[in-house]
Write a structure and sequence with these properties.
alpha/beta; Gyrase A, domain 2; Rossmann fold; four-stranded parallel sheet; 12 strands; about 55% helix; flat
Length: about 575
């Protein structure tokens, strides 16, 4: 982005047009022969009262007179109303690579966030249920967004809004009191609780009165009944042990585990504000909010007919609490697309309550995880446990490495990092709203667009650098201006765009912007590696190429880190 701003400022001086508007017009041409950057002059015609072609001709001629050997711009050409800029390769390469080597893991960081607080609510599994593969979507996306916003200088608060309240716990309490055995459940809490939860739904299909019983137990829980509260706490404690083990395996931490139950004493205020503003009305015994100004939104229940709350009430209470506690700049909810209507209702209610920060709340939705041969349903017990998937990925990775005759000493550690990284990469590879089709062939493809491919590229680069050190090569003071060849310069341009990719990921709340970027870098570096024998290059060029290789490794490691993926030094 720095080069675009530099060009924009030059043009602004000659046209009087605002540099920011010019910068927005600058694009990267579809073909390299058309230059590094292109500026269409068509929008200048009305202001400058000349044809776009004449404007570009005049600007090109004026700029050429000012270009010298030290200029960042190598040459400028005018082509049918476009200004094509060819940057000074020697200067650009020196600037980019030296900056990366100097800043290292800080490369790509900015202070654009100004320490403003961004809340990212993610993962948020329901207690007393297994941590299944579907939970990884929210977990992976939220963790990555947290790291991305942190890199941009925001103060990030990671919240795990545990699903630990609601009628489902009335169902579980009912199931436990009918069929539960404390000793059996203590031996394997999550799986045993799932069994009785599934059984409840099977029995409720035969006897619908069980649903009324479940609602009664949840009402008792809201009222603080000692027995049901003790059971609820038992379910929660058992679940947290399970979840903590999974988060440790994924390297994920949270600043808060304040779940739905945390806001149980904060919901009366929500109801009171809605009543005071005349927004609540009765409908079949329930208290609802209507959205007469938006006919597409159905009414939202705030209180059920028995006086109990629903998760919309709790989400409104949570948003108010978070604003008061953290004074957030942005409040992001990483929750599946099926909840889009719910969040539209919640955000609209917050706005109707008179809170002008409602538009700072953002729903970041995502699609489903699909298996070619099965459908997932927690109610019917058809779940794919995340731990099973991760362990299988690690085992398959280890098998692939062993078959490659690798002499890796710490094969278990390497297999774990690559295996878990492969899963995370797959979940962050495409736009988050697309469904994920889970197949091992794609996930563990060491030669395609996959986590193992990018990690292998990093390991390959590190191997080259180790070989150079072993041969006594010191490239610390390499002449980086020698990186002017097409293959080297293409990598330099890509590395220069790292910060832009990070910013784009935050702007769109799309970690796939990072995934795609670093995959492109890996592919381009592998082409360079195969076409240029780095260690056998002429001494000066060899050192410069080694410096470029280290820069690539730094960026790959940083980018994978933003995705929550650890790198390995050898593969």
């Amino acid at each position: 982005m720095k080069d675009e701003l530099y060009i924009a400022n030059l043009i602004a001086e000659k046209t009087g047009i605002e540099a920011e508007k010019i910068a927005q017009l600058i694009a990267i041409p579809p073909e390299e022969k058309m230059g590094d950057f292109a500026l269409p002059c068509f929008s200048f015609a009305k202001t400058m009262r000349r044809s776009p072609a004449l404007i570009s001709d005049e600007l090109a001629e004026s700029l050429r007179k000012e270009l010298g050997p030290d200029s960042s711009i190598g040459r400028v050409e005018s082509v049918k109303g476009y200004l094509n800029f060819y940057m000074n390769r020697a200067k650009a390469s020196s600037k980019v690579v030296s900056e990366i080597l100097e800043k290292r893991e800080e490369y790509g960081n900015t202070d654009i966030g100004g320490k403003k607080t961004v809340i990212v609510e993610f993962s948020s599994p329901n207690i007393a249920k297994p941590f299944h593969i579907g939970h990884l979507c929210s977990t992976a996306i939220g963790n990555s967004l947290s790291k991305i916003y942190d890199t941009l200088g925001y103060n990030v608060v990671r919240i795990n809004h545990l699903g630990d309240w609601g009628t489902q716990f009335g169902k579980l309490i009912s199931a436990y009191k009918r069929w539960g055995d404390r000793d059996i459940i203590l031996a394997d809490p999550i799986n045993e609780l799932l069994k009785i939860y599934v059984r409840f739904h099977e029995e409720a299909e035969k006897d619908p009165s069980l649903e009324d019983e479940a609602r009664h137990y949840f009402k008792l829980l809201e009222e603080g009944d000692e027995e049901v509260t003790e059971l609820w706490q038992f379910f929660k404690d058992a679940s947290m042990k399970e979840f903590s083990r999974m988060y440790k395996k994924l390297g994920i931490e949270f600043d808060s585990y304040a779940g739905e139950s945390f806001y149980s004493d904060k919901m009366p205020e929500v109801v009171q504000i809605l009543q005071d503003k005349g927004l609540l009305e009765e409908s079949e015994g329930a208290q609802i909010v209507r959205f007469d100004d938006d006919k597409k939104l159905p009414p939202c229940i705030i209180l059920k007919s028995d006086g109990s709350t629903i998760y919309a009430t709790r989400d409104v209470a949570a948003a108010i609490y978070r604003k008061r506690t953290y004074d957030f700049y942005k409040n992001i909810y990483v929750v599946g697309i099926p909840q889009a209507l719910h969040f539209k209702q919640v955000f609209s209610i917050i706005e109707k309550m008179g809170f002008d920060w409602a538009d700072s709340c953002v729903h970041v939705g995502f699609g489903y995880v699909r298996f070619p041969d099965r459908v997932l349903s927690t109610r019917h017990g058809d779940v794919v446990l995340l731990e099973d998937v991760l362990n299988e990925s690690i085992a398959k990775t280890k098998e692939i490495i062993e078959k490659s005759n690798s002499d890796i000493e710490n094969i278990d550690e390497v297999s774990e990092k690559i295996g878990i990284g492969a899963i995370l990469y797959t979940f962050l590879k495409n736009g988050r709203e697309k469904d994920i089709i889970f197949t091992w062939d794609d996930i563990l493809d060491f030669e395609g667009e996959s986590g193992p491919y990018v990690q292998y590229t990093y390991a390959r680069g590190r191997s080259i650098l180790r070989k150079a050190r072993a041969e006594g090569v010191n490239y610390e003071n390499a002449d980086l201006s020698l990186l002017t060849g097409d293959s080297e310069y293409k990598i330099v341009k890509m590395l220069a765009g790292f910060g832009k990719a990070i910013q784009s990921a935050a702007d769109k709340n799309e970690p796939c912007q990072i995934t795609r970027y670093i995959t492109d870098v890996a592919q381009e570096f592998n082409k360079f590696y195969n076409n240029c024998n780095i260690m056998k290059s002429e001494e000066g060029l060899r050192d410069a190429r080694l410096a470029l290789t280290e820069s690539v490794c730094i960026c790959i490691k940083k980018a994978l880190g933003l995705l929550g993926i650890e790198t390995v030094e050898r593969m």
